[in-house]
Amino acid sequence: MDDKDMGTDLKSVLITEEEINAKLAELAATIDAEYAGKDLLIVGVLKGAVMVMADLARALSTPVTMDWMAVSSYGAGTQSSGVVRILKDLDTDIKGKHVLIVEDIIDSGLTLSWLLSNLGSREPASLNVCTLLRKPEAAKVAIKVKWVGFDIPNEFVVGYGLDYAEKYRNLRFVGTLAPHVYGG
Ligand SMILES: O=P(O)(O)OC[C@H]1O[C@H](OP(=O)(O)OP(=O)(O)O)[C@H](O)[C@@H]1O
Ligand code: HPA
Ligand SMILES: [Mg+2]
């Protein structure tokens, strides 16, 4: 851990900075192959996906354009409310474009399931998903995801964009939170 580990708030490091970087390079290589010769728009889902977007975009050789959506279903808690709100929509029309949604995590799947139907209705040429993390045991809806970095256990994680009550997003690694932090 480093100096941003916030004392005893973290239980353990789940995925190190080195492991994240190696995985993003691997994902970028297959994404490059998939979109060779095509115009690609990557859509980051704020705020959690900022780190993945920044690092994945730089790992890609394919020239991309970038846009952002902000949706929120978690508020300050550790459970998805299931109600997805648009806080910021895309700046661009995606009709006829190749779109790749970039996420930090698929937990219940509710956010992405909603996003896929919302963006899918705008008639993109193609619509795929790349997520750094996925919790298979937490899935409430089945989602087809083309690129997954790591399948992780059903524990609340923070770091590398992921927050608990807006904190810990700037950790360079992904860690699990000590239960005393969220009253567990
Ligand atoms: O699969 P789900 O159960 O829907 O959870 C995944 C979503 O929850 C988190 O976002 P959040 O709503 O906390 O907003 P944030 O990115 O600003 O933290 C995360 O970044 C994903 O977008
Ligand atoms: O495990 C998580 N940590 C942080 N944010 C999240 N949003 C969904 N799942 C998580
Ligand atoms: Mg969050």
UniProtKB/TrEMBL annotation:
One of its GO terms (cellular component) is cytosol. The keyword Transmembrane does not apply. CDD domains: PRTases_typeI. Keywords: Cytoplasm, Glycosyltransferase, Magnesium, Metal-binding, Nucleotide-binding, Purine salvage, Transferase. One of its GO terms (biological process) is hypoxanthine metabolic process. Residues 19-164 form the Phosphoribosyltransferase domain. NCBIfam families: HGPRTase. This is Hypoxanthine phosphoribosyltransferase.
